[in-house]
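Now for a typical sample entry:
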Amino acid sequence: MKKKTEELRVRILDGAVALFIEKGIEKVTTRELTEYLGLSRSHIYHYFKDWQSLCLAALERFMQQELDDLAESLAGREPHEKLSVLIKYYLPEGPDAVWQLYDSLWRLASHDAAYAELAERNMNCWMEMIADIIREGVGLKAFRALDAERVTRQFVAMLNGYSENLIIHPSPEKCQLASDDLHDFIRQML
C-alpha cells in the first residue's frame, strides 16, 4: 500500500512538472493537473496541503533529478572532461522548454520567499558540484592551485549569462561560441 501511495505522489509531481514545462508554473491550475492525470482534486490535496506545496515539491524533485542525472554522467571522468560535459549539458543549442521552467521559477522567486529559497538551494547545489570538480582537479594536479570558490562563481556567472542569451535566440553556432569562450576561461583560469 505504501508503495502505491508513493507512486501516486510521484505521478502527481511528475505530471505537474510536465505541465509546468509546457505552460509555465504560474499558468497551470489544479483543474488542469487533475484532468491531465485523470484524478480528483481530493487526491492532490491528500498528498499536498496546498497548491504551492505541490509546486515546490514538484520543482524540487525535478531539479534534484537533473542534478542526479548530471552527476551520473560525470562519474568516472577526468575534471577537464567533467567541465566540458557540464557545459554541453547546461547550454541550450535550440529551443529548450526546460529552460522556460527555470525562467518561470526565477520570476516567482523574485517575489515569493518559498520559491526564492528553492531556487537558491538549487543554485547552491550547482555551485557545489562545480566547486567539487575544480577542487578535484586541483587535487589531481590537473588544475592549478587557486581559490576554487571564486573561480566557481566566475564560471557559473559566465555559464548563466551565456545560457540566458541562448534561451532568447538559441542556435548551434551561438552555443558553440559560448562553449568555446567557457573552455577558454577554463584554460586560462585553471
User: Anything to note?
Assistant: The mean pLDDT is 94. The CA atoms of residues 24 and 104 lie 6 Å apart. Residues 113-139 form the longest helix (27 residues). DSSP finds nine helices and no strands in the chain.
